[in-house]
Amino acid sequence: MTDSAIKVSDNVVAVAPTLEDESGFSYQLKRFTIGLLKSFWATFRKMPISIKVATVWLLAISFGALFASWLPIQDPVCQLNLPLPCTGGNLAAKWEGPSTSNFLGTDTLSRDTFSRIVFGAQVSLGVVVGAVGIGMTIGGISGALVGFVRGKTESVVMSIIDIILAFPPLVLLLALASSVENRTIWFVAGIIGVLSIPQYTRVARANALAVSRREFVMAAEAMGTKRSTILFKEVLPNVLPILVAYAMVVAARVIVVEGALAFLNLSVPLPKPSWGSMINESRADIKQTLLPTLWPSLALIFTVLSLNMVGDWLQRRGAGRSAAL
Amino acid sequence: MREVLVSRLIRLFATIMVVTMLSFVISTFLPGDQVSAILGIAERTPEIEAQIREEYHLNDSIPVQYWYWLTDAVQGELGPTIPGIPVATDIKNRIPITAELTLVAIGLAVFFAVPLGILGAYKEGTWIDKVTSALAQFFLSIPNYVLAIFLGYFISVKLNWLPNSGWNRISNGLTGNLKTVALPAISIAMAEIAVFSRLVRSDMIGTLKENYVLSARAKGLSNRYILFRHALRNSSLSLITVVGLTIGSLLGGTVIIEQIFAIPGLGKRMIDAISQRDVYMVQGIVVFISVVYVLLNFLVDMLYLYIDPRIRSRRG
Q1: Which of B146, B149, B268 to probe the A interface (max A CBs under 10 A)?
Q2: Are B252 and A259 inside 8 Å of each other by CB?
Q3: Over 70: is that where the pLDDT of B313 sits?
Q4: How many other CB atoms are found less than 10 A from the CB of residue B83?
Q5: How far is B278 from B300, CA to CA, in rounded Å?
Q6: Is-contact A248 A184, C-beta < 8 A?
Q7: What is the pLDDT of residues B70-112, one digit of tens each?
Q8: How many distinct helices (H) and strands (E) make up chain A?
Q9: Looking at this predicted complex, what is its ipTM?
Q10: Chain B residues close to A172, C-beta within 8 Å
Q11: Cβ atoms within 10 A of the Cβ of A215, count?
Q12: Tens of pLDDT along A235-293?
């Protein structure tokens, strides 16, 4: 204790007593989370008001999707005349307008629209996270690799990419989706993710090509750094911001595609709510009531619009930064 | 030039082989079984089933089945379908519908997108540019199936101007045909207008900074002449590419629109076939659309080569 006190007075190491804790996992996690939140807040403060609104919307639906099961909302599959007991206790009639118990009213089967939208966000966002995760990891690493290494590897990888791109994407997706009957969120995310790999590969490759010619990569090569180290420490970190901004725009497309699959009953099976299947289910009664179709459509449009706006903004910002580099 | 063409043709052939092979393999995973697809509602006994399995080579390995299928396919035979019509005939009857829908949508999109894009580029940075860009962003974010439903609701259900569903063939009169094609085509075109006009705008902004545009200005040429004769010509190259590629992807992308408006095109048939477990029909449509897609991409590539002399000399 005296030892560290001397150090503090010497103004050299002020945090000496906590030295043992720093290696702990929970401490690292805390530091990482705080760092992430700080950089998020720094970015958020620079956003123009429209982008801020979009970000808040995305955060709100992510929160809803994550904690849907614990939120004090109605049961999303509970119906009035269902013989099964309902835990949520939603006993409204069909096509009811917005009220205090049913925020956005009820649908054709007297289910609560608001909670169906919140639970539907689980499917939409789950598929986005899965699909973007798969696409960005495999596509990003393979693209950065072939852009950096080039040679035979590049021609092999790029011809596989060309084969995937030779298919009309939506038709291939429909064929793949219909080949399995018990579709889980992860299956849907998997097929969309695999089909989106080529786009990430192309973006990552183009940027890795540019980065590989930069002075700092040449310097690392001149110093005799291992190729794999250069790839992961120099090339990938510089490709990543561009890839993330691009991923936001792809995420918007993934949501539209998942909605399309759900609309055609080829996403997760009913009665699990998904925005696309909600729109499809209620459009038959659009002459009687517009609201059950309108709400999920608005949720879908706002989410896609927000992702596009934030993605565009990040891309423009990234373009400015890499030009200044 | 000829060498380029030959190597491209070889690549085209290889791509078609790979694409048909993969679509064939994927469709063997489809739920549903070929025997009932062939039999339909006819009586099914073990003997008949064995006979059909033998006749249609269903007991062979997948590569062998693919070979039998391929030899039939080149002769225009894609297998039987549940209502008793050959798959190839059914597809052939539906091609004009999906093709018309696609072409009308693309035509509408180009017609509105080019002037909007030019306007945005010419007025770059002004409020006109900002408003059109924001609108483009907005329409880009509306999935075409959502737009289709609300267009149908307001135009057909509320105002009763146009029919909400169905299809009139051109042979039954052009007005009736145009009435049924209008709403689906507009629903598809909206997002494409946004894509195309953004493209024209950014391309034109680049072109307008070129030296030859400056010298045209210095010569005292009128703005309209510069915009349309000099700038648009050079910017049209990327537009042609994107339009070509969009036509290809729309062939599969009309699926939901056809479903919403009950249009008996290829896309709707594919969805129906999926729910009827009509294996041969799904397989036929997937292979057909994929091959058309490959061919269209090839044509766009060749057109590009033909229009832009720089690319021709670099590769040839």
Answers
A1: B146
A2: no
A3: no
A4: 10
A5: 33
A6: no
A7: 877 777 777 766 666 788 888 888 888 888 889 999 999 999 9
A8: 13, 0
A9: 0.81
A10: 23, 26, 286, 290
A11: 7
A12: 888 888 888 888 888 888 899 888 888 888 888 777 778 888 888 888 888 777 778 88
pLDDT of B285 reads 86
For residue A155, the distance in angstroms to the closest alpha carbon of chain B comes to: 14
Q: Give the list of residues 6+ apart from residue B281 with CB closer than 8 angstroms, or none.
A: B37, B81, B82, B87, B90, B269, B270, B273
Q: Which two tokens stand for residue A4?
A: 């560290």
Looking at the complex, report in whole angstroms how far the Cα of residue B131 sits from the nearest Cα belonging to chain A: 14
Judge: B146–A279 Cβ closer than 8 Å, yes or no.
Answer: yes
CA B184, B187, B192, B198: dihedral to nearest 10 degrees? 150
| Residue in A166, A276, A290 nearest the CB of B15 | A166
Number of neighbouring beta carbons within 10 Å of residue B268: 23
Which residue, among B8, B149, B290, would best test binding to A if mutated, counting the most A CBs under 10 Å from its CB?
A: B149
pLDDT value for A14: 47
B287 touches B23 (CB < 8 A): yes
Task: Count other C-beta atoms under 10 Å from residue A33's C-beta.
Answer: 10
Reported as a single tens digit per residue, the pLDDT across A293-312 is 888 899 999 999 998 888 88
Query: Which amino acid, one-letter code, is at A41?
Result: W
Cross-chain residue pair B143–A169, CB shorter than 8 Å: no
Q: Which residues does B123 contact at the CB level (< 8 Å), separation at least 6?
A: B129
Beta bridge partners of B224: none
Q: Does A179 touch chain B (CB under 8 A)?
A: yes
pLDDT of residue A4: 44
Q: How far off is chain A from B12, nearest CA to CA, in Å?
A: 10
| Residue B1 near residue B312 (C-beta atoms within 8 A) | yes
User: pLDDT digits over A171-227, tens only?
Assistant: 888 888 888 777 888 888 999 999 888 888 888 888 888 888 888 888 888 888 888
Residue of B nearest to A305 (CA): B141
pLDDT of residue A303: 92
Could you tell me if B270 lies within 8 Å of chain A, comparing CB atoms?
yes
Contact A175 B141 (CB under 8 A): no
Q: Is B18 on the interface with A (CB under 8 A)?
A: yes
Is residue A226 classed as helix, strand or coil in its secondary structure?
coil
Determine the distance from the C-alpha atom of residue A98 to the mean position of all C-alpha atoms in its chain, rounded to a whole number: 30
Give the span between the Cα atoms of B146 and B142, in whole angstroms: 7
